[in-house]
Structures are given as structure tokens and as C-alpha cells.
């Protein structure tokens, strides 16, 4: 089949894209019945039609689709930016930032240390640890909506998961700067690290300026079609500039989204993008599954299992320590880590970027670990999230708004912050589900 498609030329590329989209859709019909996220179906679809199973899409086409990864990550990162409104961060942002830093970076440190103890290279360990910081919020958010969960425990989840990927992006950018500086030299100088960092700072500035400019270009009289075109020009332009600078477009595009939403106060553009990007995001996840090298699973077996377990331990320990530091409620200290287990979306994109920076064998192992563990995380994540919100008392009893523990937690959080914890959890959940959970992205 792959040979036949290759002989079709341009028509073969179009047919390959159609096969990718169709397979992704069909597999979600199965995962939906199993109550699994869509991203699980997309990745499995990629494995099935990829070179190690049915081989429906030629390998040369797969190798030429790196731009799909860059574009998808650019749109994902821009969407993440909308959750960083200054008004929301001022309300109780300090505590949320502290909690996020502890749960995210603790997992990264645990993973990096474990990989180094196994004798793996520092570059590999740093990149894997940085990727391990990320969390995929879609599964947790869908569970929250399904059980109509409310309360400060839920408010905290919704605020932290928006910050979580930002921490992962920063950690990955710093690690990537170190890896790029040390590649091929055997030693690292201050200037070698400083230059990539300066490029990342420049990319952030470009992203922030582009977001402000976009907010000026899109006004009430601008048609929806032209607003969408301007947004695509901005996002793709920023991504292209960053790629040409050999810098990940993630931070810059996130800065662009943050600057836009704060300068304009308008979130309608993000809804438009959510209607425009689904085919691109489906291609991204299916393509990730196609790149999963089945034979390398055996080589990454032990390392993958250790990564899977260590990340869970790091998330749980970090969230407990962070909750203790900010004097959060007992429910958050005990159960919050269970809601942070799912991992997909941004982490898969980071794995693809990390694969490019490492030697062939190490890069392949990195992406294989993230893809295979991502499938497992997406399978066990929803059950763990349900357990967390149930144990926290956030699922309303019949005739009651929230459970008793949630009421106590509300009083505790109000005392800590001196104000209510942001918007109502249901409003946030509905908005974030429409933007992320519908396609199991970020």
C-alpha cells in the first residue's frame, strides 16, 4: 500500500493525510466506548497505520512531516496563553505558582536523578526530566465535568494545570539550551549556554510583541474570517522565526497568546482557533503514533517502566510538599497528586523536539518512552482523577452543592488567600473542556 501511494506523487500525500485523519477518527469510536481520551485513539491509530504494522503511509512522507509538529505545537502553545490573565493571577496566583513549581519540578528532578543513576547521559536525563514536568489536563477536566465536581480542590486543579505546561516549556527550553551548547564539544562554557538562552529570551520578546500587535489588528469591525487569517499569520510567523533561530516556538507562541488575551481581553479568537485546528492536531497525534518504533520498546522497557513510576511518585510528593508550604487544605495535600498523572499533548511534542537534539539511538528511546508511557498515563489517569475528586469530597451529594470536605477546604483557602479562589470551577471547566478536552490536547 505504501509503495502504491508513493508512486502517486502529490496525490499520494493528499491520500496519506486522508488516511491519517480517517484512522484517527475511527479509533476514537472505540476509545469512546472504553471511556478513554481521544488522544489515546489517535496515537493507537498512528501505530496501526504506521511502518511497523499496516504500513499504509510511506516512511518518506512521515519523515517530511516535521512541519506538522511545529505548527501543532505553535497553536497549542498560543491556546495555553489565554489562561494567564493578569486579573486571575493576581487573585491567588502566588500560591498556585508555588504549588505548580513544587509538583512539576519535583517530578523533573526525580526523573533526571533516576536516569543518571541508571547510567544514561546528562543530556538525555535532562530532556526526559523536563518533559516529565508536563501534565495533560484534558482527562482530569472531563472527569470534573462528568461528575459536576465543585469546590476549592477543583478550582486549584484548574488553575495549576494551566500553569503546569508553562513550567514544562521553560524547563525544556533551559535543558535544550544546555544540550545544544554541549553537543559535539565534550565541555560547556558560559557563552555556549548564554547564547541559546538569549535566543529564547528574544523569542519570548517576539512572541509578546506579536500578541500585542495582533490585539490591535483584531477589532470589533474586523470580520471573523480576517481575524482568523491574522491569527494564523501571527502564530505561523512566530513559529517560523523561532524555528529559523533553532529555538522551540512553544514559549514564544505562549507569550503571544498571553500578551493577546491581556491586551485585548477577548477570548473569542481562541474559540475560532479551536474550530480551525482539530484536523492539524489529529494529524499531529497520529503522526506521533506512526513514529513509535515498536522494536525499540524492548530496549526502552526497563527505563520506560522506571520513568512511568518515578514521575507518578514525583508528582505526588511534589504536590504534597507544595501544598504544605502554602498551608493548603488536607484534601489538597493528600489527593492533589492523583489528579496530575495524565501526560500527553505538549509532552509528545517536546519528545519530538528532544529527539532531534539527541543522537539517533538516544532520541528514538526518548520519544518511545514518552509515547508508550503516555498511552498508559491516559488509561490510568481518568480513574486516578476520579478517585482524587471523590476522596476530596468535591463530588456533590444529592441535594447538596459540595461535600463536607470541600466546604472545609473553601474556608481554609479563603483564609489563606483572603478572597475566593477565582471563578467558579464549573465555568472554568466548561471553557477549558471546549478548548482542550474535546480533542484531548495540552
UniProtKB/TrEMBL annotation:
Pfam families in UniProt: Na_H_Exchanger
GO molecular function: antiporter activity
Signal peptide residues on this chain, from the entry's feature table: none
Region entry Disordered, spans: 396-442
Domain Cation/H+ exchanger transmembrane span(s) in chain numbering: 26-370
Cellular component, GO annotation: membrane
Alphabetically ordered keywords of this record: Membrane, Transmembrane, Transmembrane helix
Domain of life: Bacteria
Cell location: Membrane
InterPro entries named in the record: Cation/H_exchanger_TM (IPR006153), Na+/solute_symporter_sf (IPR038770)
Record's protein name: Cation:proton antiporter
Comp. bias regions, Basic and acidic residues: 405-423
GO biological process terms, semicolon-separated: proton transmembrane transport
Membrane topology, record value: Multi-pass membrane protein
Bilayer-spanning residue ranges: 6-27, 39-58, 64-84, 96-118, 124-144, 156-181, 193-215, 227-260, 280-310, 335-357
Main location (coarse class): membrane
Gene3D superfamilies to which the protein is assigned, alphabetical: 1.20.1530.20
